[in-house]
Give the backbone structure.
Amino acid sequence: MTVMSIYPEDNGSKPEHIRDYSEISSRLNQVGVLFERWEANNPLSENAEQDEVLSTFKDSIDKLNTQFGFQSMDVVALKPDNPKRDEFRSMFLAEHIHRDFEIRFFVDGRGLFYLHIDNKVYLVLCEKGDLISVPANTTHWFDMGKAPDFKAIRLFTTDEGWVAEFTGDDIATRFPDFDEYLALVTI
């Protein structure tokens, strides 16, 4: 279930929870974030690596490249048994920006994006089939939970790919993490 919650950046009041997909898309569009539902039913092998994923979703990638002119792409995927899951989670949990526009297309599993825009924090639980953009210079972070299980194609407008500039702000510690959020919105 895709869901979005909007908090004031000081987390000082009750959040607004939105479960209607079209409303989520509309509200994110108002702050410059593209959010769409795409087909992600192409079969992947159990342990599909980057080449298989990119080949399987070539038509979707080509459509995005035609629209946005991406220069690089990769696949980020983690399973609960990955020995570096805590290291990766820690890195993504720190608020950061990218100088370029990026898109993530979830082809399996789910993850939680936090977008810090206009004195608000948008928590967006993305699941298989969700496509979300992060506009250039938008402060954000991402949580995959203690037992990550997701696979997403990342597309970037620069050749360098994923390059983060960390803000040093501890804002991420003031909001529910992935596991807490799941418990909150699935009650």
Observations:
- Residues 44 and 53 are 7 Å apart (CA to CA).
- The longest helix spans residues 58-68.
- The chain has a mean pLDDT of 91.
